[in-house]
Automatic annotation (TrEMBL):
Gene3D superfamilies named among the record's database cross-references: Periplasmic binding protein-like II
Lineage: Bacteria, Bacillati, Bacillota, Bacilli, Lactobacillales
Protein name (Swiss-Prot/TrEMBL): Periplasmic component/surface antigen (NlpA)
Subcellular location: Membrane
Pfam families in alphabetical order: Lipoprotein_9
Organism: Eupransor demetentiae
Membrane topology category: Lipid-anchor
Keyword Signal in record: yes
Length: 282
């Protein structure tokens, strides 16, 4: 009887060890570190705790960063597996400047409109001739901001204006606006500066300053084909071997539960874009 009991006990131990072994390795293969900036951290922490993530067997660790360049470099170097903060244009600009630290596009998440904000004026036509407009100091958002000003009818751009063009590609500036380059993460603070008449701010940063682009901006981007380059995306290191695994995060992001959470949390300012990669690369 004792021998039988020992055999059963031994088998039980073997089963427990095997389950622990496979559970450990299964968990390891699904551990993903995602880097993000600003209020998007709330979204990904919500996803990390979601039933959908558990059902997929994904253990998501969310790390917050303060600037896009350091986050992209961390992703390229592999200390972060996936990042979720940048537009497609920003990614293209980063890859153009960093040929040895390339990133790869995984898929689309949302578009949140960039807006023109002012603490002094309540309408575009109130901004005085010769006024100073604060604009991002990185090529992707500089270009995006200038296109927004052109869409608002404040300036005219040259015919060859591209996704990384700067102020030298302005064809006509009838109001003689001056442009002051700023770190775009400081937009909500700069808006209060006495020498600034208006500021161009992306919605992720605007949210940090408790601004709602749909309610607080003088003018904002319209969600259409002309703004598709500004769609936010997920990115990973170009040479990553786990892209198929990382793309499961897109399924989680676009789930009904997560989308309902985002709409309630951000007042409709993050407009879902669930499109194939080809949509951006056409």
């Amino acid at each position: 009887m004792k021998t039988k009991t020992k055999i059963i006990a031994s088998l039980a131990i073997v089963v427990i060890l095997l389950l622990a072994f496979f559970s450990f390795h299964h968990g390891q293969s699904k551990d993903i570190t995602l880097g993000t900036i600003g209020d998007d951290e709330k979204i990904w922490n919500y996803i990390a705790k979601s039933k959908e993530a558990k059902d997929e067997g994904i253990h998501l660790k969310v790390k917050s960063f303060t600037d896009g360049v350091s986050l992209n470099k961390a992703t390229a170097e592999g200390t972060v597996d996936v990042n979720a903060f940048q537009s497609y244009t920003y990614l293209v600009a980063y890859n153009d400047k960093n040929p040895k630290e390339q990133l790869s596009l995984l898929g689309t998440t949302y578009l949140e409109p960039m807006g023109i904000y002012s603490a002094k004026y309540h309408a575009l036509d109130e901004i005085p001739d010769g006024g100073t407009i604060a604009i991002a100091d990185n090529p992707a958002n500089t270009s995006r901001g200038l296109k927004l000003l052109a869409s608002a009818g404040l300036i005219e751009l040259k015919s060859d204006f591209g996704p990384l063009s700067g102020t030298n590609a302005i064809k006509s500036n009838p109001h003689n606006f001056k442009f002051k380059e700023i770190d775009d993460t400081t937009g909500p603070r700069v808006i209060k500066d006495n020498d600034i008449d208006a500021v161009l701010i992306g919605n992720t940063i605007a949210q940090q300053g408790h601004l709602n682009v749909l309610k607080d901006s003088l003018y904002h981007e319209k969600v259409d084909q002309s703004t598709k380059d500004n769609v936010n995306i997920l990115a990973s290191a170009k040479d990553s071997k786990k892209k198929a695994e990382y793309k499961k995060l897109l399924k989680l992001y676009h789930s009904k539960d997560v989308q309902n959470y985002i709409k309630k949390q951000f007042g409709g300012t993050k407009v879902e874009v669930d499109k194939p990669v080809s949509y951006l690369q056409k």
